[in-house]
Amino acid sequence: MYVFEAYFTLRSRPEFGFSFSRAIQLEEVTLETREGKIHGKFTMTLERDDYNSAEERARKEAERIALLLTLALGAGFVVEDVRIDRKPIIEEEGKVKKIVVSDYAYASEALVTVIRKYSEEAMTGLEAELQKLASKLKQAEYGEDLLRAIKWWRKGNMEEDGVDAFLHYYVAFEMLASLKGYKHHKREEWAKRFAEDYSITYKPDGKTRITDIRNWLVHARGSKKEKAEKLASQYADRFGSELLNAIKMIVNEGSKKKSNLLTYLRRSLHFLFARAKQSRVAPAKLSAYAASWIAPATLLEPAEVAHPSRLSSWVESVEL
Asked: The domain containing residue 177 runs over which residues?
């Protein structure tokens, strides 16, 4: 058996750096910061002395950690470099002991300027969140699809041009809606329903749908394209932030059964409160109706049921 030490470096956008108050442990990987970048190391064992296999495995693990940090810290991370060191092998030939050492070259690049510092208290929270995200993604029935969506979100977050960032975010938006089953609905409804259920602004300027912005960017010319470029640039950061929250909600929903239950409750609540608003139902009557319908099953107050995070916590606790 051959034992390899793997080292990797993760970076965010050039203007951002990170500073942890201590190293954190995520499964077998130790993470710490130096000069604004995140450095990881772990040990692996292979049956053959195969640098390429070791490097491929290390790069896959580094990419997985980069995506988890992207979710946990709300900033895109990419793998900057990977280095592999094989631990020395001691070979005995009679009375002679021979130590075989291997060394491999690697390249790195980039500089960072602004450092985000994390206190001891924040590190404890980050460590717990990373462990939770890693576990949730492993258990998720569509974990691989979620990871692909996160990669597109990361592309948007790393992009400096607002229009390009919006387009990358939109790909993630469409992928998430598809894996959640929204794209099986009528073409004009899926985006609106998904956006409403996951608290994503559907009309950034109050009039223009995000689907129109995307279509005009790709297909239109003249004034429509100019309007779309302006809206995309203005809305990109907000779109990315709301989309990140949606990704976290989907990760926390877990199994498809729980996810479907949560979606049903959200839609029912949207319908309930919309009808109540149209009919000018008194808040007391609305609360009583909601309590008689939903609250007994969830053991939450109506106002808490309507809050996405509280509703998600309840669904997570249900045995299905």
From this structure: 142-254
> How long a stretch of residues is the chain?
320
C-alpha span between 196 and 202 (Å, rounded): 7
Q: What angle do CA 160, 72, 140 make, to 5 degrees?
A: 110
pLDDT band with cut points at 50, 70 and 90 for residue 9: very high
Inter-CA distances, 312 with 64, 98, 106, 295, Å: 25, 59, 44, 14
pLDDT at 62 over 70: yes
> Crossing angle, helix 51-73 and helix 143-158, to 10 degrees?
70
CA distance linking residue 265 with residue 189, whole number of Å? 18
Same structural domain, 250 and 274:
no
What does the alpha-carbon distance between residue 182 and residue 176 come to, in Å, rounded to a whole number? 9
* Last residue of one domain, picked from the residues 229, 254, 279: 254
**SS3 readout for 159-215:** CCCHHHHHHHHHHHHHHHHHHCCHHHCCHHHHHHHHHHHCCCCCCCCCCCCHHHHHH
> Is 226:155 a contact under the CB 8 Å cutoff?
no
Residue carrying structure tokens 């990109």: 236
Let me know: does 200 contact 173? Beta carbons within 8 Å.
Answer: yes
Residue 251, pLDDT score: 86
Same domain, 53 and 14: yes
Shared domain check, 275 and 250: no
Give the Cα separation of 150 and 135 in Å (integer): 16
Determine the pLDDT at residue 266: 60
With a threshold of 0.70, does the pTM exceed it? no
User: Considering its fold, how many domains does the chain have in total?
Assistant: 3
Rounded to 5 degrees, φ, ψ at 91 are -110, 130
